[in-house]
Design brief:
The chain is mostly beta strands and 193 residues long.
Length: 193
Amino acid sequence: ARVYGKYLDRDDEQVVENVRTYTGGMALRKRMSNTLSGSLALEVSGQSAKNYIDAEDVTRESTPWDRLGYDQTAFKLNLTSSLIDSVTVSLLGSWYLKSFDAPENPTVTYAMTSAHGTTAGVDVDWAPSRDWNHFGFYAFDRMKAEIDANGGDLNDTMTSHTVGAGSIQSMLPGHLRCVTSMALTRTKTPQKG
């Protein structure tokens, strides 16, 4: 079993003055063979924002969705296979439940109150030598949101696809690494009417 956690407190100064995020969880790992291992994890995470800048100007079109306060619980599954020494393939999946019932969130007439969703993805890692590592990944996220719209409830589904690739080169092993990466995301969100 592995227990992990992370806390980040950063100044924003664009939409809010300050954003705090946290993540904590426990993962159970199992090696099933020389080439296959997996893990099952329970993870809790959240975000809180302090002092929205120009909160009175927030409308349904300008709601800062990525800065909203939330609490999330997720169950995560990971299967990893190394059929040959230099290549590792991981299959990832999760189910999550998210609540946006945070007192600091701005009050608007089109507000997300809760959401649940699933994620799935694949990571491929190729290490042809000790000094070179190349990777690529694909991730899919489907979230169904409960939205309070003008006093009525709506259910909207949002999906996103992300692909990425990169490489890591050890310039001075143990001291200096060069990381190059890029990612592209395509998101489909409902039109607010």
